[in-house]
């Protein structure tokens, strides 16, 4: 394996074949036949236009299979990709950070039966850096340029350097997968990886928030229900327009501008247009739209609540005052989990999510036994390997935390 620090002197990866985008029916049929004729796992990647477009659709799908070569497919030129999905049936998909790409692949009918996530594999192996470029350097001794990762992939035609970047993202994945698999076997983590990969593959999408406008960055600075109504109306107007023209909302008018207008609502359209804090590429060209939203908010009768119920736990820094027992449990369990993670050579957050640990510390089982803790962890979505590795140490930590309260009482008596 190669030291990532040596990346600058490593040979640069280059595509195995000319980069060509498939965007016509004949090319699509040929691509399907090629993928079906290949053998073994299929490397899969997708490029979106996050930060440029409203949708999270895929604007390029990359595939590589041994015996098939590389396929760069423009999904916007087709509907659902049923024939391609059929050709990929039964094969393992290899992705890097699969949770990012699976939703947009699902939109076009591509659903894997099993996956290998090379980013997650790198985490389980304890790699310090898990980006694809760093993993390729470490395992394959090649430098992989990543300068186009944040490009606007809805651009047409796609520049050749972008296509080279896209092709390499899949052409090297199978070699990375094989190297990681060997290391997982050597470290006894194959079963762990399989459970983690399956968890990513089957994870359900989070439900949309009931009031998505409350995600406005800086909304906490807006006081009072009337001002919140203005913020809501501005967010809704921006969201509707962004959806209509398929543009990222923040590129039209940034959150900070909406919040500024809601915090001190202008008295007229002219005043809104004159606000220095109200900027963005559509802030003036669509001023009628934004002023109408301000008027809607100022006239609203269904004023939003200033506070909304939430099942979110308070931040741990507040636990010592709000729930001292939970605070002691969490402070006892955290180093215990960290110690187990260190012995297993993986990040503590992959051993057990911080949220799961916080929730079980805040509301523990009535009896702090390993069995009861295991059942609680399962309710919070922990995988079997995580439960086996952590249930006993968490139970022991909770008993230790409770004993810290009992001991001073006993010594005083």
Structure overview:
By secondary structure, this protein is of the alpha/beta class. It has three domains: 4-202, Ribonuclease H-like superfamily/Ribonuclease H (Nucleotidyltransferase, domain 5, 2-Layer Sandwich), CATH 3.30.420; 212-299, HRDC domain (DNA polymerase, domain 1), CATH 1.10.150; 316-412, HRDC domain (DNA polymerase, domain 1). Helix content is 52%, strand content 7%. The protein is built from 19 helices and six strands. It has helices spanning 25-37, 82-87, 98-107, 118-124, 132-140, 160-171, 173-186, 190-202, 225-245, 249-252, 255-263, 269-273, 287-299, 319-322, 324-344, 348-351, 354-362, 370-379, 384-412, and strands at 21-22, 39-47, 60-66, 69-73, 93-95, 115-117. Strands 1-4-3-2-5-6 form a six-stranded mixed sheet, with helices on both faces. Helix 3 links the parallel strand 5 and strand 6 (115-117). Helix 9 runs antiparallel to helix 13 (287-299), helix 15 (324-344) runs antiparallel to helix 17 (354-362) and helix 15 (324-344) packs across helix 19 (384-412). The longest helix is centred in the last third of the chain and has 29 residues, at 384-412. It starts with 20 loop residues before the first strand and ends with a helix. The mean pLDDT is 94.
